[in-house]
Prior knowledge:
The protein is of the alpha/beta class. It has 9 helices and 7 strands; from the N terminus they run αβαβαββαβααβαααβ. Strands 3-2-1-4-5-7-6 form a 7-stranded mixed sheet, sandwiched between helices.
Amino acid sequence: MFPHPIHYPPAIVPNVYTFKDFEGSSHRILIELIRRFAPRGGTLLDLGAAGGELGSAVREQFDTTIGFEYDADRIGQLRSRFDQVVIADLETVRTLPQGMRAVVLADVIEHLRNSTTLLSMVKRSLNRDGVLFLSVPNIANITVRIGLLFGVFEYRDRGILDFTHLRFFTMRTIKREIEKAGFRIIAIRGSSVPIRLIIGWMPDPILRLGERVLTWITRIWRGLFAYQIIMAAIPK
């Protein structure tokens, strides 16, 4: 596959994403889905691996792990968390390693001009029993809807309205995108609003209670309260 890092032109967007491992977070849900649906053994391909924390958390489930990341400054981190590391701008990649057991696209396709091309490559890279794990922000989240009600739609450094997002998805449109690319969705979840990152100054017991309540609410009204939409899908 890729015995040595391969260097492509750097991506134009800054990497501001941090690993989120608390109740209701997208990364915790992704880890749970990978442990539940990904076959053991084989190879994990993490596209947009950031610091590699997610890949490291499920590393024992696979024989080999590969991390793709565009930020060359992270290569030291990634080498300690993946068996192979590729520095690449996913907008320029034309092929992916074949025979993958699991491919992860965590908060990636909303940054791409053409996510359809990448999803098609992912489908070709997966084994017959392989699984795609994906997360995207939910533009229909209640916080965005309330802002629009009052005429507010401001881009920010991170979050649903991150200024580097080129595409926006609702529950319906991301389902359509995944199915159009030739996948069948086998699980869909919603992460809750990350109050720990918004009001982290509160005492931890109160934050944990708030996260538990928000997780419960999000499960009931996913389309409205999901901060991010998380899916597991298999090739048709």
